Automatic annotation (TrEMBL):
<comment type="function">
    <text>Part of a binding-protein-dependent transport system for a sugar.</text>
</comment>
<dbReference type="InterPro" id="IPR050490">
    <property type="entry name" value="Bact_solute-bd_prot1"/>
</dbReference>
<dbReference type="Pfam" id="PF01547">
    <property type="entry name" value="SBP_bac_1"/>
</dbReference>
<dbReference type="InterPro" id="IPR006059">
    <property type="entry name" value="SBP"/>
</dbReference>
<keyword id="KW-0732">Signal</keyword>
<protein>
    <recommendedName>
        <fullName>Probable sugar-binding periplasmic protein</fullName>
    </recommendedName>
</protein>
<dbReference type="GO" id="GO:0042597">
    <property type="term" value="C:periplasmic space"/>
</dbReference>
<comment type="similarity">
    <text>Belongs to the bacterial solute-binding protein 1 family.</text>
</comment>
<feature type="signal peptide">
    <location>
        <begin position="1"/>
        <end position="25"/>
    </location>
</feature>
<keyword id="KW-0813">Transport</keyword>
Length: 417
């Protein structure tokens, strides 16, 4: 074997590297927590959309509803210097990541595709850090829903509830007929999802905003919040004993298979009904959570982009952002996910009655000032206060804590910075 001088070896190695990176297709690594049946079908659509645009998908899925585990994994990765291309991050957490100085600016694609004109201004501002787009919005989920199995109602001789009183009347009948009235999973984010819909039903949108968005101490400790916890304590008595730790999609499965009658959950639950081949209005009902028909708790999924040094990665990031905002993707994703498109210009015709209602109620509640951010789904307050508030709700759900003690703990938690 002839010996080559070191410089030629370096040149050869560099050429080989160049060749292999040119042969490597563009790729995005995306951190998400969409792992249930309906969610997996939805994310598969994003992979397909990207493949059609020549970009490969590297999956960074971290199971766990509402993304608590995913948020921890993301922190670990960014701290170790290896941020993914994008991650499913929402609401005020986008600003928290912006302050860390680790985000990519996607203004170029947003400007050329006129995102400012396609998005409601309130949504656009969530996607921006210091005036620049750093995230692409995927959809709008409504949280204040009650999912109902009409066959269970019928068997129990109960009717679909619109108010909290009607809800308890239906729950009593379902229980008396030997079925589980309320399907629930005892995980802090599910407890908080239930809590915020009850708070909205008991106090209305004005109270909700004062207490759970502005964190006003008087609203957090006043009689309406006491009544919210009293109502929550009553609902607890309709949940089965095996609920501790149960995943949300397993609770939805109890509605699907007729074991239980009603579930408080956002409309990602509809993704499970759809995946199971069930029809809205016939096999299941989507009702506004009792007493909340005039309001809308929103939860907007978004993909947050992280700074990447390579030009290839930056290009793939722009492709990802553009794919997410395309009308075709917004339509097919929400059809599977149970949500509605977030941008203008997506045809409504293929959406079912639940989605149509969500679209109409989003418009009406925006005009009425009752379109409010979800606390449980990271849209309302910073992550420290949210975590502390969710701890209090979970403690209340899992103990005999009084409503009076709960509101005091809640007000203290709300001060967490
Ligand atoms: C929400 C998220 C939804 C859905 C749900 C359950 O916070 O916005 O897209 O995934 O959690 O994991």
């Amino acid at each position: 074997m002839t010996h080559l001088p070191l410089t030629s070896l370096i040149v050869m190695a560099a050429a080989a590297l160049g060749a292999s990176s040119a042969a490597q297709a563009a790729q995005v690594e995306v951190l998400h927590y969409w792992t249930s049946g309906g969610e997996a079908r939805s994310i598969a659509e994003l992979k397909k959309t990207l493949a059609a645009r020549g970009v490969n998908w590297k999956d960074f899925a971290v199971a766990g509803g509402a993304g608590e585990n995913a948020a921890t994994a993301l922190k670990a990765r960014v701290m170790s210097g290896g941020a993914p291309t994008a991650a499913q991050v929402k609401g005020p957490a986008i600003q928290e990541w912006g302050q860390e100085g680790v985000l990519a600016n996607i203004d170029a694609v947003a400007r050329s595709e006129k995102w400012d004109a396609l998005l409601p201004p309130a949504v656009a501002s969530i996607m921006k850090y210091k005036g620049s787009y750093v995230a692409a919005p995927v959809n709008v989920h409504r949280v204040n829903w009650l999912w109902v199995n009409p066959a269970v109602l019928k068997k129990a001789g109960a009717t679909a509830p619109a108010t909290l009183d009607e809800f308890f009347a239906a729950a009593d009948k379902i229980k008396a007929a030997g079925m589980i009235a309320v399907a629930h999973g005892g995980q802090p984010w599910q407890d908080a999802t239930l809590f915020e819909s009850v708070a909205l039903g008991v106090g209305g949108a004005g109270f909700y905003k004062q207490a759970l968005v502005q964190l006003d101490p008087a609203a957090l400790t006043g009689p309406v919040m006491i009544k919210t916890f009293d109502t929550l304590a009553r609902i607890k008595t309709y949940i089965d004993r095996d609920s501790a730790g149960r995943d949300w999609n397993l609770a939805t499965a109890m509605i699907i298979n007729g074991k239980a009658g009603m579930q408080f959950m956002g409309d990602w639950a509809k993704g499970e009904f759809t995946a199971a081949g069930k029809q809205a209005g016939a096999d299941f009902l989507c009702l506004p959570a009792p007493g909340t028909a005039a309001a809308y708790t929103f939860n907007i999924d978004s993909m947050l982009m992280f700074q990447k040094p390579g030009a290839d990665d930056q290009k793939s990031q722009q492709v990802l952002a553009s794919a997410i905002m395309s009308p075709q993707f917004q339509e097919v994703f929400s059809l599977n996910k149970g949500s509605i498109p977030v941008r203008a210009g997506v045809p409504k015709t293929r959406f079912d009655s639940c989605a149509q209602r969500s679209m109409a109620d989003m418009d009406a509640s925006s005009k009425a000032g009752s379109f409010v951010p979800s606390l449980a789904h990271n849209m309302a307050v910073g992550s420290a206060a949210q975590g502390a508030i969710m701890d209090v709700i979970a403690r209340f759900m899992n103990s005999t804590m009084s409503s009076k003690d709960a509101v005091a703990a809640l007000a203290k938690a709300a001060r967490t910075k």
